[in-house]
Amino acid sequence: MSLWTSLEPASATVDPGGSTTVRLRLRNTGDVVDEYRFEAVGPLAPWARVEPQVLRLYPGTTGSVEVSFAPPRTPDATAGPNPYAVRITPTEHPDATTVPEGNLTITPFTEVRAELVPPTVKGRFRGRPKLAVDNLGNTKLTASVSGSDNGDQLSYDIHPANVQIEPGRAAFVKTTLKPRQIIWFGSKESRPYTLALQRSGVDPMDVEGTYVQRSFLPRWLATFLGIFMALALTFVMLWIAYKPSVRSSATEKIQEAGISTLAPSLSPTPEAPKAPSSVPTPPPAATETQKPGGTAAGAGGGGSEDKETKAPERTAATAVQKLAAQDPTGRHICYRAYVSGKGWTDAVCDGETAGTVGEETPVKAVNIAVSGTKGTSSAAFVHNPGSTNGEGHFPDPWSGAADGIDNYVGSTKKDAPNMLGLTINVGGGSSVCQTAHVHNDAWLGLECDDPGSGFDFTYAGTHNNGLWLEAIKLTV
Q: Are 298 and 311 in contact (CB under 8 A)?
């Protein structure tokens, strides 16, 4: 094959969310008419478009095509130089393919999202909120975290105080709030506070929360103690004032035998009436067949037991409890997906597929339960119709559940938005791994969290409003 090519320019620059065009010139240096097909290859291929895709050249003639690049404003558009290539396949000589290469520099941008999980915490001596920091830019985020409040009423223990987050990843900053003064009696008090995320060269990002401080002894307990002391004092006073009569049983026995210990008198005196007993008679004890509520075990005919009962729904907790009974020392995770138009799928466990693949049916909600990991927590990232950057959002805070308990994220309502992905973590120093299948794409790569490095959660899915979640696999 005889073909000459040239990229003009060989290196270009583009802003995420913008576009740029590179011209590819080529000349047919052979002696036959040939038709050339063009295809962008490499990491930038999803964001590249070649027009026209087919070019026909006579011998000795020159033509050109335009290669347009439009990287999105997402963490996937990695800042810095990115190589790309265009594959040129001649129709007459398909085995004589040429691949000219160029370089596209994507400019950096920064976008940070931070929220408190939960925004309001309650306690008597401390509160433990978490600050979730998402790096939505395409460069590494380095920041420090500090806390403050009006009146210096709280102290802050923040770990880690400095974070470094890769593009498209997130981190949790654990915070312990401690009131400087204890409320012994009275009603609870709300103490607003602020956690500031400080990056070099920019104003700090403030995230506001509320710590509700409860009193050490609630008001109802003080009232109860006062009433109890009054009743106790009344009882003591009545006990002292009441003097029951006491009669010897020996005297009664002698009188029954007709023997008198006194000298005979001229007129007999009638026997004095017996004083009432000062000890009340206890009620009869319940028999073994009596049940709480005052009904006997054999009474009633058992009408409710004769009716046919509906089998309980098999949730993720039902499945994981069965695994935990078979393997008490192991770690397991079970889950199921609420699929649009189909409802809940069967609960699966430990790396099996929940949802559908390639059926254009989005996931609306996910039900998760774990065993052996000291609980789990999750949050759903869903479609945002009001988005200005083509991305979804987190409409609800994180929700969590202990071992063997169902945790739900997303919504099963009729008009619920499609889930684009979900964040998940587990406790007890355990690690959770995930892979997701999204609309118009294959299975994404397997990713796990790293609790020891501060990245104690992982994200399954995408941020794109048009790429909803179809299926997931989870392991612990």
A: no
Query: Rounded CA gap, 4 and 26, in Å?
Result: 5
- Tokens 């950057």 belong to residue: 389
Parts of the chain with a pLDDT under 50: 250-251, 254, 257-307
Q: Do the Cβ atoms of 58 and 35 come closer than 8 Å? A: no
Identical fold between 3-106 and 112-213 = yes
Tokens found for residue 123: 């306690």
CA 17 – CA 309 distance, rounded (Å): 58
Phi and psi, residue 231, nearest 5°? -65, -40
CA terminus-to-terminus distance, the chain = 55
SS3 261: coil
The pair phi, psi for residue 254, each rounded to 5°, is -65, -40
The residue type of 433 is: C
* CATH superfamily, domain at 3-106: Immunoglobulins (2.60.40.10)
Residue-range domain boundaries for the chain: 3-106, 112-213, 316-475
Cβ-Cβ contacts under 8 Å for 144 (sequence gap 6 or more):
161, 162, 163, 197, 198
Residues whose CB falls within 8 Å of the CB of residue 456, separated by 6 or more in sequence, listed in order:
172, 425, 449, 450
Q: Please give the backbone phi and psi of residue 308, each rounded to the nearest 5 degrees, phi first.
A: -75, 125
Class of domain 112-213: mainly beta
Task: Tell me the per-residue pLDDT of 110-169, one tens digit each, with 9 for 90 and over.
Answer: 999 999 999 999 988 889 999 999 999 999 999 999 999 988 889 999 999 999 999 989
